[in-house]
Amino acid sequence: MSHHDGDENAAASGAANVGATCAATVKLPDFWQHNPRPWFQHIEAQFQLRGITQDVTKYFHVVAALDASTTARAMALLEAPPVDGKYDALKTFLLQLFELSELEKADRLLSLNGLGDSKPSELMERMLAVLGAADPSFLFAHIFLRQLPVPVRTALASSPLPSSRDYRALAVEADRIFLANRQQFVHALLPPQHSFAPLGPPEDDLGTAAAVTARRQREDGWCYYHSRFGAKAKQCRQPCSFRAQGKARAGAH
Hints:
Elements: H1 3-25, H2 36-49, H3 55-65, H4 68-73, H5 75-79, H6 86-98, H7 102-110, H8 120-131, H9 140-146, H10 150-156, H11 167-180, H12 182-189, H13 203-220, H14 224-229, H15 242-252
């Protein structure tokens, strides 16, 4: 064996050792049942950064990241994986198992209910996440536009963007219009100032009523309740001459 061949073998051995070390240290997040495709994008970035390329290594890392319920549902494949392409077979199985069906995606998109607290671009990202790898129909942009305030929708009606299939560019333009008119939208949602009626009588009226009550207490010798409510008072606090005066008036008749 030549010196050159020895150097190549040593380099290959060193690269393998580095790859093995990286594979031993990588720690994947637990599998995301509700977001399987973003999860695979995340872990494949980790594989790339750590130089993990061997099919069997990637396969076993994914198996180790599965929760109990997912493992149970994948047992047929896990017990008899293909000889080659183990990782791709497991990835395909999990995506088919947990990604939304076409009908479920349509239901979610059609059940959207406006912007809420979001900007148009944030709504678009949620819609694209629901869509996943599916091909959007011609209704996709229309569904997005239906969630926007009427002035934004009107401004975009003459734009070529809704029919361009450049959905993020459409969302950016919607953001621009929305943010430029946001103050107007906020004022339109607020009730007018004059619609708030006072909850009680004016302070002057309260002060007048209190003054009359105090004067009656001094002049008639009545308690607060009879001074305030007269014969309709349901309570009485002594000393109070209201009842005695009432009896005296009755005797005089």
